[in-house]
Automatic annotation (TrEMBL):
Region span, Disordered: 81-151
Primary location group: cytoplasm
Domain TRNA-binding: 155-256
Keywords: Coiled coil, Cytoplasm, Protein biosynthesis, RNA-binding, tRNA-binding
Coiled-coil residue windows: 7-71
Matches recorded under InterPro entries: NA-bd_OB-fold, tRNA-bd_dom, Tyrosine-tRNA_ligase_regulator
Protein name: tRNA-binding domain-containing protein
SUPFAM superfamilies: Nucleic acid-binding proteins
GO cellular component: cytoplasm
Location(s), subcellular: Cytoplasm
GO annotation terms (biological process): translation
Any GO molecular function: tRNA binding
Length: 316
């Protein structure tokens, strides 16, 4: 009986130790994430300052360009702004030109107003003629209209990154290096995700893991199982780490980049190679912050994505 009570006490103490270790690990992870956010704030301020300077330079160059065009007789289109740079001087020259093309009408003073009316009609015809080149170029315009709106830009806003939780994971029955995960993305149903992480991350660490998933790739079969998303990791040939989400993130949160606003495609067209084009610009910087073309990836109001130990590596 004594040995049974001792064994019971030891078991209870072991459970208490395990819970304390788990709590300490969580505290360490929170400290790491807070440290990463603190490091990124000065860099963010510096980049904002540089952006403001660049905007001022662009505005100056725009003004110089407009003035140069006016000097060279290029017509300016009035825009709904308060700028006084855009003038109507070239149109005035055009309106003064028609009276010069009316010799011989001076001898009929009673009909002096009629030639002026007739001179207005050729102006309208000229305007119609000016539209003809645009009509000739209609095939090109139609091509642009037929393309999806998302095709007009090529940046990270096209990619649908969202926070999800792995609720179940097992090894692929026909592939030794693949996991098959069931992921809750807050859609009312779980998505199946196939990941080649068996050689890098133990299955125990995959279970209930909260991570970032790319959700608008076209679903594809991997060794017979349809994969509906992709888990995002900091990656080298030797080591792979699942990206960490900031504290307070919840399932379904979208990952964005302030420098590249916009809504993601419903589903990427594989023929357009959007993912293949943008992937090289996704990296983890020296401060272990995930970024796109030097701009941090974040969950608005909660913080940035980070890696645990890897820095200066690609995200895929």
């Amino acid at each position: 009986m004594a040995s049974a009570s001792v064994l019971q006490r030891l078991t209870q103490r072991a459970k208490q130790a395990e819970s304390m270790i788990a709590a300490l690990k969580q505290q360490i992870e929170n400290i790491r994430q807070n440290a990463a956010i603190t490091v990124s704030k000065p860099e963010e301020g510096r980049l904002k300052s540089e952006n403001q300077k660049l905007k001022a330079e662009v505005e100056t160059l725009k003004s110089q360009l407009i003035l140069a065009e006016i000097r060279n007789g290029v017509k300016q289109v009035n825009l709904p702004t308060n700028r006084s740079v855009v003038k109507a001087e070239p149109p005035k020259k055009e309106s003064a030109a028609p009276p010069e093309v009316k010799p011989g009408v001076k001898q009929a003073p009673a009909a002096g107003d009629k030639p002026a009316q007739k001179s207005e009609k050729p102006d309208k015809k000229e305007k119609k003629d000016k539209k003809k080149p645009a009509a000739e170029g209609e095939p090109k315009a139609k091509k642009g209209k037929n393309e999806p709106v998302g095709e007009e830009k090529l940046d990270v806003s096209r990619l649908d990154f969202r926070v999800g939780q792995i609720v179940d994971v097992k090894k692929h029955p026909d592939a030794d290096t693949l996991y098959v995960e069931e992921v809750d993305l807050g859609e009312g149903r779980n998505r199946t995700v196939v990941s080649g992480l068996v050689n890098h991350i133990p299955i125990e660490q995959m279970q209930n893991k909260i991570a970032v998933f790319m959700c608008n790739l076209k679903p594809a079969k991997m060794r017979g199982i349809l994969s509906e998303a992709m888990i995002m990791c900091a990656s080298t040939p030797e080591k792979v780490e699942i990206l960490n989400v900031p504290a307070g993130s919840v399932i379904g949160d979208r990952v964005t980049c302030k420098a590249y606003p916009g809504n993601p495609d419903a589903q990427l067209n594989p023929k357009k190679k959007v993912w293949e084009t943008l992937a090289p610009d996704l990296k983890v910087n020296k401060e272990k912050v995930a970024e796109f073309r030097g701009e941090p990836l974040q969950i608005e109001g909660k913080g940035v994505l980070t890696s645990t130990t890897l820095s200066g590596v690609k995200i895929k």
